[in-house]
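Category: protein sequence paired with discrete backbone structure
Discipline: computational structural biology
Format: plain text, a pair of labelled lines
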Amino acid sequence: MQLSGTHRLALPRLRVWQLLNDPQVLARATPGVKTLVPDGEDRFRAELELGLGPIRGVFGGHVEVRDKQEPSDLTLRVEGNGSVGGIRAEGKLRLEEAGQETVVHYQGNALVAGTLAAVGSRLFSGMARKLAAEFFENLQREGSE
């Protein structure tokens, strides 16, 4: 499944970059994250609890931040498994300065397996867009505090 879009944050680009590179902020801003524990440079062990329609599960896995080009580009890679299946996703973020705001361009893909895959890409795609919007709203709130 492919996912792309843009989101405008009322924060300067350097502030958005700092937020995206703060593990505590990422843990609070990312929907469903129960724990995010450092496990090497730019690598974290994660536990997420997510629901997709009638399917709910807890996933254990890793989150990695790669290909950093401060303050404009980075890649997030997520891998996790749980009782309802597994997910492997990668997303590229590009931060564009727009005055005192930042336009975040994101593009990524995800592969799902198990019961999650049986739900169908249309439901999964809608949920992914909802989670992305929630993440950026939470990031905005974190940066405004």
User: Anything to note?
Assistant: The mean pLDDT is 90. The beta strands are 2-9, 33-38, 43-52, 55-69, 73-82, 85-98, 101-113. The radius of gyration is 15 Å.
